[in-house]
Amino acid sequence: MIAIDDEPMAVEIIDKHTAALPFIELLAAFTPISRAITVLNTTKVNLIFLNIRMPGISGIELVQSLDNRPLVIFTTA
Question: What are the tens digits of pLDDT across the range 1-10?
Answer without folding.
Answer: 999 999 999 9
